[in-house]
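Dear support,

We are seeing what looks like truncated structure output for some complexes. This example has three components. We would appreciate it if you could run it in full and send us the complete token output so we can diff it against ours.
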Amino acid sequence: MKTPAQTVEVNSASKQQFLTFCIGSEKFGMALAQTREVIEYGGITQVPLMPAFLTGVINLRGEVVPVIDLAVRLGRPPIEIRRRTCIIIVEMQHEGQQFTLGLLADSVYEVLEIDADAVDPAPAFGANLRADFILGIARQGEEFIVLLDADRTLSLRELAKLVEAEFD
Amino acid sequence: MRKLSLKAKIAILALLIGGAMIFLGSFGFQQLGAMDRYVAQRLGDVENNVDVLMEMESAHLKFKVQVQEWKNILLRGNDPEQFLRYVNNFTQVEREVAQDLNDVLTKLTAIGGNTAAVMALQVNMQKLGADYRKALESFEPGDPMAGSKVDQLVQGMDRDASEGMTTLAEQTEHAFAELIADVKTRINEHAASASRTYVMTVVIFIALVLGAVGFVFFDLYALLGGEPAYAVSIVRQVAEGRLDTEIELKGKSRQSLLQDIAAMKDRLTQIIGDVRNSADALASASEEVNTTAQSLARGASTQAASVEETSAVMEQAAASIARNNENAAVTDRMAQQAFQDASRGGDAVAETVTAMQKIAERISVIDDIAYQTNLLALNAAIEAGRAGEHGRGFAVVASEVRKLAERSQVAARDIGELATTTVKRAELAGSMLQQMLPSIQKTADLVQEIAAASAEQSTGVQQINSAIAQVSTTMQQNAAASEELSATSEEMSTQAISLKENIDFFTLPVMRDRKAPLKFVAKNPSKPSAPRPVAERKPAEKRLPGALEDDDDQHFVKYD
Amino acid sequence: MDIPIETFVTESRELLALMEAGLLKLEAGLDSASSEYQEVVNEIFRAAHTIKGSAGLFGLDAVVAFTHTVENLMDCVREGSVGISAELIGLLLQCSDHMAALVDAYIQTGSAPETLVKNGEQLLMSLTPWLPRAAEAASPQAVEEVSESGCWHISLRLGRDTLRNGMDPLAILRYLAGLGELRYCEVIDDDLPLEDFDPENFYLGFVVGLAGPLKKSDIEDAFVFVRDEAEISIVPPQETREQLLRLIQSQQGKSRLGEMLVCSGAITQRELEAALHQQKDPETLKKPLGEILVANKSTSEQLVDAALARQRQKNSARMIRVDAERLDSLINLIGELVINRQRVDLLTSGYVDQDLQEAVASLAGLTEQVRDAALNLRMVAIGETFHRFKRIVRDTAQELGKDIELVLQGEDTELDRSMVEKLTDPLTHIVRNAIDHGIESRERRAESGKPLRGTIKLSAYHDAGNVVIEIQDDGGGINTERVRERAIEKGLLEAGVEYSEHQIHQLIFHPGFSTAEKITNMSGRGVGMDVVKRNVEDLQGVVDIKSHRGQGTLITVRLPLTLAIIDGFHVNSAGTHFIVPQATVVECLDFNSVRRLEGGSSIQLRGELVPYVHLQELLELSGQVNQQKKLVVVQFGDERAAVVVDELYGELQTVVKPLSPVFGTLKGIGGCSLLGNGEIAFILDVPQLIALATADEVHRTANSALMARRHAPSDHLH
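Here is the complete output from our reference environment:
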């Protein structure tokens, strides 16, 4: 068994590893600590009566993992399924419970070690994204990588609420 | 008659004799029978007449009785008892006389005699009777002289009757005696004629038989032509081979055994003579044949040798043609091969293109794999990252793997490009090959023609070869045949000699105008073999006709 | 360190539980003269004794020291020199708690914290009134004649009539000398009478030391003629004792103490028979065999203890402790096995090979058996949980000054381990509630004419694939009015609207709800029942409450029998696979061949009106549909309903995979499962589904009459 993932805060003076991926033309990053693996897209079963952001569930080596369209979650148009589309499997903690999620992404880049210095705080506006989703903006040469806050973006409570909302 | 065999003739003869005897016998029998019947007949007549006679005699007697009785009556009639008795007796006897006269009549009628007298008698009798009775009426029993009275009354009445009776009786006796004499005469005559006939017949038949026997005998004799014993002895002589015996012939124009024997002897002589000649001729012929055969054989082997040479030469020719053929075939194959290679080249190009496409596919697979490897490396990096310090080494490995994956992708791309280039080149090669094809084809065709011609030559040579071979075979067969022939002629020679030996059994008479004996000179086999004209042979003595032959015939020349 | 001490921990916990149970039994009242009393007391004593011994092995001195006193006390009780009283029992209970605490402390920290030790000492002090004066621990110790090493120590006291019987003691001694090396031979002449000396009597005793490779029976045989009237004690030499110890410890086969000892050579058959005979003697009153043997000097206490330990070991070898995680992983693996087996089934269904089919079929059977066995491994009798409540009830009742009896029923009812763990808290809460709010005080009860002693009945039983746990109290019941008022206050209910009693009772499960006037330690915080409900629902169960004012309350918890693997009916609706739990399926029909009622969505099934719902519509599925629809009739509780699907595949058994918490509130689907081909099928939660259908219909038809009619059956659902 793996040791439970621990949430990390960016603003500690150390390097941190992030998994970078791409949605549309934007580059995002998520703390490596919470990512488990990356798999290709395939074998998604739709779950009835689910909101749009919940694409469905997949069978990940015997575990039934829900897959979320990250684009929709981030308020963008849904991801088109192409060859390079992948699912990023993340493990989250919530109230002592561990749960696994799959995130749809257009493509995945690499594992980057990002210096805390290279990260700017989230802008007040303009990122076209909910502010609380953003951990920070990392600069990599010419590019900017939006580092997402997994706990907020994938807050179980919120997600569950959204799901529940469908039933009302 | 000639056609019949002796057996048949004798059989006929026998039959004849037999038949004659039977005939004679039966004829005799028959004659006897006839005689017998005749005699019986006559006797019958006699008998009948005897009966008449007897009856007449009886009647006559009884008339006398009757008269007696009348007398009795007249004499003793005075006694009524006696009268009655004598009357009865008279009546009785009268009746008896009448009866007898009836009987005579009857019998006479039966035999067809003259009955008039009888009948007249009968009437007389009746009259008498009636007259007496009438007279009797005047009989007085009591009168001693009644008798005499009546007597007187009847005087002369009985004369008719009595005379008649007596006459008739005498007539009858006389007739009878005549009859007897007649019969006797007749019988004798008959017998005499019968015996005459019989004798004549016998004589005829004997003559016939004798004639037949004589005929057969003569025939036989004629057939034999002489005495059988003579014939036998002649035959014996002939059988002993003494054909020189003279045969005496009874100069008959008909063919007889002896004649035939003579003829046979002559013919035998002739034949033997011929055979002897033939045997000689045969012997010499076989010699010649032998020689010829040998020379043939020699010739054949010479021929065979030359045929062999020819054959060898032909073999060489065939061999060289075959070589040509092979070369042509090889060339042909090579041309075909070239053609096929060229077309395969074309196929190969197509295959190359397909292969390249497959490569392209594989490349995309590799690309996929590289991508997935990339992903894996990524996941590995994630894991490494999570492992923190412990994972650093692993992270390095992971990034290496990623690099490798990238390199794979790059390599895959390169391969892809290479594949494309190769495709182009292959296509170019393909088109060039295509252009080559027609000329190759032409070459191939030409070569094929050469090959065909060569083949034909080869076939021709083969045929020649086989013909030669056949000749050779024939030669050999000939040689063999001549060998055989030689052997056979030897055989023949031997046979001829043995034949001659057999022939010598016969002694021939002196020859007359017959063919000259044919003799053959036994040649020396070592002499040259070419057939020679007959003239080259040694002339030899001619055999004198009629001279006794001698066994040594070697010096006689052969005649055709 | 780990394994043995774990064993020790679990063992000691067991023993402590035993102790506690025993003490509780005593408290419930046992006639001290009864054999049962003695048994219980003995049990308690032995528990303490063993704990002490084991603790000693591991060097848990504090435990040893503490337990020693307890053991002494129990020994006195056992002997009868100390009488049991409620006070004592209470103290002893505290002691057992303390011992547990000590053990825990040792496990956690490796030593006993000061405070704890101090507590212990205090406790011990409170025990002193009962402890005997003698400083020495009164636990009987057989006089162990420690023989010199290497030598059998034989003490021989021949009977008076030995000589008369024609026996020559010297001959015996000589025989003994022949058996081995005679180390020493002393005469004991303490029995010589000074008067009445009969020269024909034999008054002497001998102490002989015999060395050599001998068996006890060999030596005993020497005395075959005299032993009827002789007192013979044969003590094996040290090494032999150790040998015997080892022998006993490795005893196989024999499970009775006497047999074990005889087999290992510690005692002879004769000694055993003598002891057994003595046991039957009413005077000794069923003393344990071991004690008798020790008293008879047939063997040493050490050996007896060793034999007893071995016996326990062997008995407990019938039970194995299994690491829960291992069990879980095993069950997971078996779950995978089940799935894989189904895959194999699928793949081989096309082959006509008879042998193959047979093998696959037998594989299916075996897999099922394995699955069942594995699931059984997880099954635990709820009795354990229930028993815990005894203490709770006692303590709580005492605290609140109420007289409550806990009746347990269906303790053998088994349910899944995981469930048991998760049930403990909810059940505890419910029980506490019952004690707190349910059962009235004695006075109140007397007023109502109820027996002074209140009863809380915990019962468990199986019902159609479920485990039903009922907590019934004969208390005062729920004050519906009060609840209603409170609910209106909190805005949960509308004033003026008629609600059924049941509906009002349901509000108890609402978070933050409590009618209690004061918040006690145990309840009243209002965080109880909703948590209970959630916990139960987490276990895929339902909780219901029935109450009658003045009579009592019944809380029913209904749980599925097993979580892990279910038997279900595989169906498909619009391309999505579903599994209907087998336990709920009544029958399957062809949709077009049943009589449908006009103007509604019900079918007539054997005289009964069964409502149906199109799964595709209900769950808004988009996919290929079948014209030939099928109908699955399901049952929940007393109600029946029907679900219209597109395809019926058949029965299958599959592993239930819990849905992600993301789907926490997903209605109608209670888990998912992996099919043989890897696809995901959703397991229908029938009650929820029907609720959904109902809600749907409510949406569609605003007909209030329909609402009222529909609400009636749905009461049972919440």
